[in-house]
Structure formats: structure tokens, C-alpha cells
Amino acid sequence: MSDDPKPAADDKAAETAAPPQKLDDKLMHAKVYAPFKVYFDDMAQSVSAVNDTGPFDILPRHHHFMTLLNPGDVVIRTAEGEQRITINRGVMHVKANQVIVFLDV
Amino acid sequence: MRRPSEIEHEEHSMATLVELTSVFEGIASMRIAQTKNQVMQATKFFNDLWGIYSQIRVDSLFRFGRSQEEDAVADKELYIIITAEGGFSGDIDQKLIHLMLETYNKDNNEIIVIGHHGAVQLAQRGISFKKYFKLPNKDQNINVAPIIKEVQLYKNTTVFYQEYVSLMTQDVKKISLSTAVQQQGARSERKEDIISEANYIFEPSTFAVVGHLERSMMQIAISQLILDSKLAQYASRFRAMSASHQRSEEAKADLHLQYNRARRGIKDERLKEIINGLRKSRGVTL
Asked: Which chain A residues contact residue B213 at CB under 8 A?
């Protein structure tokens, strides 16, 4: 997978499934959590991680995407700075400007 | 008649037992509150994950996270029995083993025991089991990967576990593992948005993601059943300790009564001797 964000193939579908709060083009909602702990749950500018293909970035309006994450860091960039979460394994789900990372699964 | 010092000694021992059972009761009560919280948190996480898995349209069959090639699978049913680690859990383990033995057939079933108490109980009954796992002490991030490996070797798996109904009521139950996963998922209320290769990018592949999700959900389902069983065991222990506490308090009160009677008996005896002595010295005869 390339480092460039993938544009949404179906903008109309993405718009209809958008989360209730109004998001601008530079932000998306990100949640990183494990069964017993929430590590991040807020608006973000980008989320970076590593999968079998290599390092990749998720930017707002990314195409629907599901991947298994490799051990490493998940980096979340926000207006305030960046947060780095070291993970063992996880599953990432990207849909309608929302990124969910399930850890320890 | 027993000597008061003997009774007093026994009363002290009983007082220690009263304190101990009270402490165990308190610990069990605290663990119940903690574990209930863990169960709720893990259920929320599972529901989110299930919400995604159930939207994926690749295969209608739950394959226990096995590869699509269907590796060699034993034509037997695996029984997993989740029991307590120690013996302070009332009679709930015996009930669970009894439930398992109702359907157990050594030619068709293999047993994996979780918890030392269950392993001892089965050994005493002369029933052999394939593997024994220690019941995890911690309530979070339970590593159930070795159990999942075993599960994938069998056609089907049934889990025998203990269910917390209320503080004073615990039940023993059995559930097929694939049903357990689906039941957990059935509790989640998610809208149906289809996830398929037509509208999603999967990496490394669709089947790899689905297989991984199935394994993950089995892990969470087994962890949940272990947590449920621990919760029931804590409640059973609480119940047993409450009953012991009550009995030991009654026994202590009874001993105290016996002690007072014994002391009074001695005093009465001495008083009688003094009165008799006085009467004799004054020349009074009865």
C-alpha cells in the first residue's frame, strides 16, 4: 500500500454514512482502544501505522479500508501535537471519516 | 463438665474463624464488583468488533478462524470446562462436572480443563482429560491463544461454564463456541452496512482479515466465559463465606454461653463448699 491517502471512490456513500457531528476536510474521528482501555478517542488530522505492506497513513476522506496491523507504533496527529501508541497487534477499520483501531485482537 | 479455660481457648479460635470468613467475604464481594465492571467493558468492545464482522459478506459459515483449505480436523467434539483454581468456591464445580458428564462419551469427546479444582475433581472420578490450564489470576488480557489452537483442531467445541445470576444465585451452563460468538454478537444492535471487496480495501486479504476477526472473537468469547465463570465463583465463594461466617458467629456465641455456664458452675460449686464448710464449723447439720 502506498503512503498516499486513497481518495474515496464513492463520495456520495461516504457523505450519507458520515458521523453525526460536522467534520471538515482536514479532520476525522479516531478511536484507538483495547477491551479494557481507551487510548485515544478524539478528532485527528492523520493516523499512521504499519501493516504487512509497510507503513501507511490515513488522512480524512480515506477510502473504506480494513487491515491487520503489525507490531509497532500507531501515530495520531492532532492540532495539539502527535500521540504515539506502541501496539502488539490490532485491526484497523476506516469508514466515513472514522478510524477505529481495535488493539490486542 | 469441660473446664472454662478449654472453652475459652476454643472460643478464641472460633473468633479467629469469624474474622477470617469476614475477610474472605469482603474480598469476594470486592472481586465481584471489579469483575462485573471488566465483563461490561469487554462486552462493549466485542459488540463493536462484532458489528464490523457481521457486516462482512464473504462466507456465511463460521470457520473457527481456520483457513479456507480446512486443515485436518478431528471428528470429535471438544469439551472445555471452566472451574475454580482453589477449593473455596462452594459446590459449583461439582455441579458443573455433573452437567458435563450427562453428555460425555470418551469415544466422542476430549476434555480440556481450566482450573485446578476441576482437574482434581475429574481425576478423582477417573476421567482423563487432554490438557489442563491454570485459571488465570488476572481478569484483563487473558491469553487464550493456546486454547484457540486446540479449538481449531476439532469439528466443534462446547464450553461448560458458570454463570453469575445474582449474588446469591449462580448457575452452571454449556454453550457451543460458535453459538457463544454469535450470541455475544446478537446482543449488539448495529445497522446492517455491507462490507465487501466491492466497496472496501482489505489488507493483506479479505479471508485473512475475516479469519483473524473470527479468531479474535473466539478469544474474546472464551475470555468472557472465563470472566463469567470467575464472577460466579466469586459469588459462590461469597455465599459459602457468608454461611460460614454466620455459622462461626453462632458457634462463638454458643461457646461463650458454655464458658459462662462453666465458670458459673465452678463458682456455684465453690460457694456450696464454703457454705457446707461454714455449716460444719457451726455444727449445723442438714
From this structure: 91, 105
Which stretches of chain B are assigned E, i.e. beta strand?
74-82, 109-114, 131-133, 154-166, 169-176, 201-203
With CA atoms as reference, the chain A residue closest to B219 would be A105
C-alpha cell at B14: 472460633
**Residue pairs between chains A and B whose CB atoms are closer than 8 Å:** 72
Q: At what angle do helices B206-281 and B92-101 cross, to 10 degrees?
A: 130
- Asked if A8 is an interface residue toward chain B (Cβ–Cβ < 8 A), one would say no
Q: What is the ipTM of this complex?
A: 0.73
Q: Is the pTM of this model over 0.95?
A: no
CATH of B22-240, one of 3.40.1380.10, 3.40.50.10380, 1.50.10.10, 3.40.50.970: 3.40.1380.10
pLDDT tens-digit readout, B125-137: 999 999 999 988 8
Domains and CATH numbers, chain A: 23-103 (2.60.15.10)
CA distance B84 to chain A (A): 23
